[in-house]
Amino acid sequence: MHVQLAGRLARRGNEPLGEHCPIDVAVQAVGTRSAILLLREAYYGATRFDDFAARSGLTEATTAGRLKALVEQGVLEKLPYQEPGQRKRYEYKLTASGEALMPVVFALAQWSNEHQAAAAPIKLSHSGCDAPVTIKAECSEGHAVEMDQLIVTS
Amino acid sequence: MHVQLAGRLARRGNEPLGEHCPIDVAVQAVGTRSAILLLREAYYGATRFDDFAARSGLTEATTAGRLKALVEQGVLEKLPYQEPGQRKRYEYKLTASGEALMPVVFALAQWSNEHQAAAAPIKLSHSGCDAPVTIKAECSEGHAVEMDQLIVTS
DNA sequence: CGGCATCCTGTATGATACTG
DNA sequence: CAGTATCATACAGGATGCCG
């Protein structure tokens, strides 16, 4: 397949892309509200069960089930740790796979910021220079890639 | 709120962010498999009902319901058009809001490409220079922003 | 503190058939 | 071509309570 988005080349044929399409795979893996909200809290610094549950606003049952699923998928790691003189606890830490979902989550935020009146916008900025941050498509030559310049090949 | 991701500053307090969090708003608006798959097909060039249904693999009923919802949300526009000598048809076109979701959809693809074995990777490239394209966080000064350099303020 | 079990509701989606 | 109608299934998620 070879498609230029919003460009001259459109997809040909009407076969469904099927279950191996990476977009579909990702949606089926982490496309639930609970997964996204728990990832949000992981980015915001949560590592313990009770923090995940309280900050996400999900019930404990939902939190428990989704955290377990995210661990099984390799998005989070469950690690026992013990502070000196304290009892044993567990922490959930982002794996490289979980960190790689960051653009997804903040691209959702960016979209609501600009296109959903119901949202209370958040601001993203760069700790190095304080400049505002956006999630965008960019090529390895450093060009910002707009939709009509993006070519998809499979 | 002021949070530096994976950095020193973590979120304080355990209040749930609530329903106005832009991430939550976006998930509730377009966080279904059918919405994402139909957006995928819109980016790939679909404009007509039957194309959306056949290429997404969704049933006609699901396609009809989700297209209607996306139109009501302002993500797609339903426009009547008539080619000379042909009968009246309808086309679904992406609005600015729908185009703004592109980074979300391709960030999902990018994640599966790299972290989900079940996915058949797709390649993104820039029509201008053929260089590979990624979805990433970048500040207005042109710096790529890694997770530990991203500050969130609300 | 960090969960799991149970029950219940709403909704997303599929399958199938039918209509203008 | 562009849907609608009906039926059935699966799962997400809330509410509540229990447990080590």
Task: Tell me briefly what this model is.
Two copies of one chain form a homodimer. Chain A is α+β, with helices and mostly antiparallel strands and 154 residues long.
Structural class of chain A: alpha+beta
- Parts with pLDDT < 50 across at least 5 consecutive residues of chain A: none
Q: How is the main sheet of chain A built? A: 2 strands, antiparallel
Distance between the termini of chain A: 5 Å
The percent range for helix content of chain A is: 25-40%
Total beta-strand segments of chain A? 6
Order of secondary-structure elements of chain A: EHHHHEEHHEEE
Q: For the CA atoms, what is the radius of gyration of chain A? A: 19 Å
Strand order of the largest sheet of chain A: 1-6
Q: Give the oligomeric state of the chains in this entry, treating copies of one chain as homo and distinct chains as hetero.
A: homodimer
Helical segment tally of chain A? 6
Rounded average pLDDT of chain A: 94
Q: How much strand content do the residues of chain A show?
A: 15-25%
Shape type of chain A: globular
**Most extensive chain-chain interface:** A-B, 97 and 97 residues
